[in-house]
Specification:
heterodimer; A: alpha+beta; B: NADH Oxidase
Chain lengths: 279, 266
């Protein structure tokens, strides 16, 4: 007998569904049949280091900022987002296919290269591309599984960056995160959480920055005017290209100062969880 | 108002049996697989993609000659590398046992990377691993030289390869949901590339599918390229024919019967 009332039990169930979704990752078909894939489920206070890293990167990248604000706001409201962390061993390659898709002529040469740079990219890498395919077929099965459970979800490189920086799933070299729930429509698409977080001017500036040729006036003169306002000819405005010491400085500061500080703060706590755990 | 005439003639009988191969009732069944392949293709298109960028192309191939051509190409590739020989030869048998082949490719992994510095291709913090090995100007890759001696002209943008993984994964999820047997194969993808399917793609995965009593892609025996259903059936035809001719008699005049026992005689 029982009677479930309210929304809390649904929020709690997102975690149970996450475990089922992890099963889908492990069940996903592989091309090589030889790619190691691991799945972890992270929620509650243990999201805090991930949110903190995303917050730092979000200052540099709008899409990371979007994901950061969404997950952070949901978490702070007690809406229980759950992260499914998925990692794959995309290097070294044990295939001996020598297919060339990685850029090397042989798997042996790739493996020698990979040994030196393992896990060094934002999301990890380097990758045997057949193993990358296996990993992301599995990630797709996580997404598809979440859709079948009718839980709003989005696969996120931004979370993958945080997982990699904080060394979650330490045995794997390429990582990505699937954000799950809370149980309602449109958490990660047409995001309620982002309402009123940007101004009309910010949106307009983003569009000018990202799609400048939509606003290019007659280019025959060689230095076209940009139609940045209704009366765009009075006075005319032009675009220029150059280096941005401010942007580079911000990137250096965030990537090589802020983020290492966050990693140092949480590293022992996270790594302690893996001690003595096989599989 | 124009009437939907098909409904006025809504009647028919459709007998379906998977045996014998390529007979009308088997082709009727194969058409069901084709419907599933079309839905799988659509699922590949709706799969998640980095930045929401469209980069998937796909091709559905079916028919006795078409499938045999793909199987033969896989056999040709199989003999090029020791590590490919046995698995690829097994997979050529599986292709012959398939109803439809779905090729899924990514049109950007070799020529228009994500450019996000994710590092998945080469493990660094920028996209130099990719661009340093490509002929390009201002990051615009020249793909016109197609004379590569590699099977796949890498390096590829691994973020786009991931997108291919999502596309293939969604196609397979739909197959799974529809209870259609399907598996992704590198061998089929490589054969497809060489035959010109999905020729705008830098990497192609082949997904054969079938709707038969036994899933063609699992539970195979050792030396499957030599010992498989087609071979067993062909061998049966061979052995049985010879067995007949060494036992010939004129059935209109005499048919051998079991000898009657003494008790039956009484």
């Amino acid at each position: 007998m029982g009677h479930l009332i309210g929304k809390q039990y649904c929020q709690e169930h997102v975690l149970e569904a996450a475990k089922s979704i992890a099963l889908a990752v492990h069940k996903a078909p592989m091309i090589t049949g030889k790619t190691e894939v691991e799945v972890e489920v992270i929620w509650g206070e243990d999201l805090e280091p991930i949110i903190e890293v995303m917050g730092a990167v979000g200052q540099l990248m709008r899409y990371v900022y979007w994901d950061y604000e969404t997950i952070k706001n949901c978490y702070e409201k007690g809406e229980n987002p759950v992260i499914i962390a998925i990692g794959g061993k995309t290097a070294p390659s044990n295939l001996a296919w020598d297919c060339g898709s990685c850029g090397f002529n042989t798997c042996k040469e790739f493996n020698k290269y990979a040994k030196d740079v393992m896990g060094g990219g934002q999301l990890g890498g380097p990758s045997c591309n057949w193993k990358a395919l296996d990993l992301h077929i599995a990630c797709d099965w996580a997404c598809a599984s979440a859709w079948q459970y009718k839980i709003d979800n989005r696969i996120m490189g931004s979370v993958g960056f945080a997982l990699n920086a904080l060394d979650f799933i330490p045995n794997m070299n390429t990582k990505i995160g699937l954000a799950l729930g809370p149980p309602r429509d449109l958490v990660y698409y047409s995001r309620d959480e982002m309402h009123k977080s940007m101004t009309y001017e910010m949106d307009k500036q983003d569009i000018f920055n990202c799609i400048p040729n939509l606003f290019t006036a007659f280019p025959g003169g060689g230095t076209p005017v940009y139609k940045t306002k209704d009366e765009w000819w009075a006075p005319p405005e032009f675009m220029s290209i150059g280096q941005s010491p401010e942007a580079m400085e911000a990137m250096q500061q965030i990537m090589f100062e802020q983020i290492p500080e966050i990693i140092a703060k949480y590293s022992d706590k996270i790594q302690d969880r893996y001690k003595g755990k096989k599989e | 108002m124009k009437k939907y005439e098909e409904d006025l003639n809504f009647r028919g009988e459709e007998y379906v049996n998977e045996w014998t191969p390529w007979s009308p009732q088997d082709i009727r069944r194969k058409k069901g697989s084709l419907e599933a392949a079309r839905l799988m293709l659509n699922s590949a298109l709706t799969a998640p993609a980095a930045g929401g960028v469209p980069s998937t192309e796909a091709c559905i191939v079916y028919g006795q000659e078409e499938i045999e051509t793909i199987a033969r190409k896989i056999e040709e590739i199989a003999h090029q590398k020791k590590s490919w020989k046995e698995p690829f030869l097994y997979e050529a048998v599986m292709v012959r046992d398939s109803d439809v082949i779905l090729f899924i490719g990514n049109t950007r992994c070799h020529e228009s990377p994500l450019d996000a510095g994710c590092g998945q291709c080469g493990g660094g913090l920028d996209c130099s691993y990719f661009y340093d090995q490509k002929e390009h100007k201002y990051g615009i890759v020249d793909t016109s030289n197609r004379s590569s001696d590699k099977d796949i002209d890498g390096p590829l943008c691994s973020a786009r390869v991931n997108d291919l993984g999502y596309a293939v994964g969604s196609a397979l999820w739909t197959a799974h949901t529809l209870m259609v047997d399907a598996r992704p194969f590198a061998s089929v993808g490589l054969a497809g590339m060489q035959l010109g399917y999905c020729r705008g793609s830098g990497m192609v995965v082949g997904v054969p599918m079938a709707t038969k009593a036994k899933n063609p892609y699992v539970d195979v025996n050792v030396d499957y390229h030599l010992i498989n259903k087609d071979r067993v059936l062909d061998h049966t035809r061979k052995i049985y024919q010879t067995t007949r001719i060494i036992r010939g008699f004129d059935y209109r005049k005499w048919i051998p019967k079991p000898e009657k026992s003494d008790e039956e005689d009484k």
